[in-house]
Amino acid sequence: MLYALVIFVIAFVIGILIGRYATCPQQEEKQTSLPAMNDAIIKEADSEIGDDIINQISSENIRLYLRDLSELPHLAGTPADYTQAKELVDFWSSVGLDETFLTPYDVLLSYPNNDDESQMNRLFVYDDNGQTVWQSDLREPILHPSENKSDVVPPFNAYSAPGDIRSAELIYVNYARAEDFYWLMHNKSIDVTGKIVLARYGKIFRGDKVAQAERYGARGIIIYSDPADYDDSDTSHVYPDDWWLPDSGVQRGTVFLGKGDPLTPGYPAIETAFRLNQSDPSIETPNIPVHPIGYGIAWNLFGYMTGDEVPSEWRGGLNRTYRFGGNLSVSGQSGTIRMRISTSNAVRRTYNAIGIIRGAYEPDRYIILGNHRDAWVFGAIDPSSGTAVMKEISRVMGNMVKSGKWRPRRSIIFCSWGSEEYGLIGSTEWIEQYIKSLAARSVGYLNVDISVQGNFSLRALATPLLYEAIYSATRRVPNPDPLESSNVKTVYDKWLSSFPNADSSKPRISSMGSGSDYASFIQQVGLPCLDVRYTYDNNKYKVSSYPLYHSKYETFYAVDNIIDRGFRFHTAVGQTWAEIARNLADSLIIPFNVMDYAIALESLVDQLFADYGPKMESNGIRFGKCTEKLNQFKVYCQSATPVAHGVVIRIACKQLPYAIREINDKLMNLERAFIDPSGLPGRPLARHVLFAESSVNTYAGSSFPGLVDGMFEIDEAPDKVQRWEKVKQHYSVILFTIQSASSTVKDSTRFM
Ligand SMILES: *[C@@H]1O[C@H](CO)[C@@H](O)[C@H](O)[C@H]1NC(C)=O
Ligand SMILES: *[C@@H]1O[C@H](CO)[C@@H](O)[C@H](O)[C@H]1NC(C)=O
Ligand SMILES: *[C@@H]1O[C@H](CO)[C@@H](O)[C@H](O)[C@H]1NC(C)=O
Ligand SMILES: *[C@@H]1O[C@H](CO)[C@@H](O)[C@H](O)[C@H]1NC(C)=O
Ligand SMILES: *[C@@H]1O[C@H](CO)[C@@H](O)[C@H](O)[C@H]1NC(C)=O
Ligand SMILES: [Zn+2]
Questions:
Q1: What three-state secondary structure class fits 660?
Q2: Candidate from 148, 150, 555 with most ligand 1 atoms within 8 A of CB, to mutate
């Protein structure tokens, strides 16, 4: 990027020399000369500071931070939520950050009973005399002494409806995707109405599984981790000897489909907030009981199942015959399954911890780094591996500021979010509280949730303006893998060979769903965002996530001994994250490449045409208009000459700070242009017309989500005509939005 910038500036200077703007207009010179101006204000950043920061990130510090952070459970809304937040702001003050804050919110959370064994979440199977023949474990057993701590929350799915239900039938529904239920209903004539269903984790967000089960009329849903999706080994090499999930490991997790506090949608959960009634039907929490189990428990349940054998795609890795289910069979007689779920909602206080390094020249421009702090249990991978790294970056940067060695041009804000696991709550409430300031002043949001879930390669999600900053940082960070051949020198090299893009020219960067705290920054603010982590080889390991995900066994022991011995990969993520932040905070011109946006938009439009173009046109939508708006946008991005000339004039006339601010404001506002303040159709808080999560899988990113959702199964819909009208309306919003983006990049007085 530095070279690109140098070339950029040289091009301007040549432009000055040969162009018609070679001399300043006289009166402009008079008005604007600033003799006392400090040269530093218009000086390009010293990029060697980047190497300095990279070299100071210490793997030993990260290791010690992680050991402390993950020693005890730190579930959202418990005393540990406050304790860790307070320790973090104290740490930030001690390492030289300028300001720190704790921002409390009173939000709706959810907890299982953890002390009365007669009430705790449990599954039972009864025989035809009503005798208990089997019941599930209440807790995950201790497999390593470091887990022997109090306050380990037993397995549960947050916001499950409480309930004590029984059914004579148990139906296996594979991954509980829309297509799984559809196929059961239409090809197998199996109706799940009023029954309990058993689903396996994987493929889609668990909240969407529950929503589908409820939509098809199920009374309750049990979700288990199948070895095929979480333990690709021979099941003997499992935690604590290896990274595989043991049969007793259970994936906890939320099943709330919204973002932020369920009771205060769109507004901060502060003292004066109006709160919805907890039974308000608009709250996107399930109305049926949900319970997660490990594959050891699932193995037992499959033993009571009847019905036909499932096809091979539905089969998992248990040593059992997988059947569709139906009436339970207990020793040849009928049986009953019972779900006793006492999970209940409660309003609790959660905290964000915020630490700020004040920018030297542009303190009102923010580079925001964030990671959540709350964990289901010990959270040594999710999220404390990220917290430990963020602490180390803040230590290095804070010390440089304190010692007078460096102060970034723009402000850097470190954020430690509370209650992410429940539904991105801390970050969303903070955004909702400060949205006016954030929308006017933020440059970008850099998220790291888990920093290391494997030692194969970096993987990145980002919006297009940040591509260049990620590439440039990863080219500077040494490849952390000591076993790698010597021509794989950098994180970039390894990333390129591991996850190349379609033409293998660059590493692949995927679009963002809403799997972590970046979601509300994109959707509510319209901020360029990224999320990076080190990951495993997903060609070698066909798993749905790293195996220990959200189980009690995500311990420091596992990270220190199995996942990242020596903490080299944590260090590489810290170096990458820090360098991206430094580049954004320090560069004279914000290192956003607008052409990357034009290229990304073009490929989205091409994809839309390939998938839906003919269908849209045959329903009276002129696709050519979209191409037209896109081409205009490309022209403005490509030449950007009105912008360039503006800079040239003012560079020549020493009016630099304003000229630079003008350019930077355009860059900063470009992403904002794609925000529709009224939201996508039916989704007031999803406002980015290009990127939002898919409405059937919250984890996955989707392009033109409003259009794609609008056209989902539209031809079979009884209200087809009205639906096409809605699609046309949203299509016109998209055209308008692309045009707004063009206005944003055009010359400041020729935006019309
Ligand atoms: C857990 O710690 C307690 C108290 O130190 C001890 O009595 C118990 O045996 C330990 N349990 C396991 C499974 O290690
Ligand atoms: C489902 O049934 C339909 C109609 O009987 C058939 O055409 C289709 O191939 C079946 N699908 C699968 C996946 O078996
Ligand atoms: C909340 O809703 C429930 C169920 O509809 C109702 O019984 C209760 O009175 C409501 N509470 C308030 C404060 O409106
Ligand atoms: C699978 O289960 C059967 C019967 O329970 C048993 O005989 C067999 O050894 C098991 N196979 C494996 C690989 O565990
Ligand atoms: C399930 O049990 C009910 C009640 O005993 C019976 O009426 C029904 O036929 C059984 N279903 C199957 C598929 O065997
Ligand atoms: Zn997380």
A1: helix
A2: 148
Residues whose CB falls within 8 Å of the CB of residue 306, separated by 6 or more in sequence, listed in order: 323, 325, 326, 327, 328, 329
Distance CA 497, CA 424 (A): 33
- Predicted TM-score of the model (pTM): 0.92
CB 22 within 8 A of CB 652: yes
Q: Tell me: the pLDDT tens digits for 56-72?
A: 999 999 999 999 999 99
Closest ligand 1 atom to Cα of 145: 14
Ligand 3 pocket member 277 (CB < 6 A)? yes
Instruction: Name the helix (H) or strand (E) containing 326.
Output: strand 325-327
Q: At what angle do helices 656-670 and 720-745 cross, to 10 degrees?
A: 170
Q: Directed axis angle between helix 48-56 and helix 384-402, to 10°? A: 130
Query: Among 644, 544, 635, 626, which Cα is nearest to 199's?
Result: 544
Q: 279 to each of 161, 276, 287, 345, how far by Cα in Å? A: 11, 8, 10, 11
Report the alpha-carbon angle 97-100-103, nearest 5. 155
CA–CA dist 737, 732 (Å, integer): 9
461: β partners: 510, 531
Range list of β-strands (E), 213-289: 220-224, 253-254
Cα gap 444→426, rounded to integer Å: 18
Task: Encode pLDDT of 210-262 as tens digits.
Answer: 999 999 999 999 999 999 998 776 667 899 999 999 999 999 999 999 999 99
**122 phi and psi angles, rounded to 5 deg:** -160, 150
Q: Ligand 2 within 6 A of 187 CB?
A: yes
Q: Are 110 and 350 in contact (CB under 8 A)?
A: no
- Ligand in closest contact with the CA of 167: 5
Q: Is the beta carbon of 144 within 6 A of some atom in ligand 1?
A: no
User: Length of the chain in residues, anyone?
Assistant: 752
For 117-132, what is each residue's pLDDT tens digit? 999 999 999 999 999 9
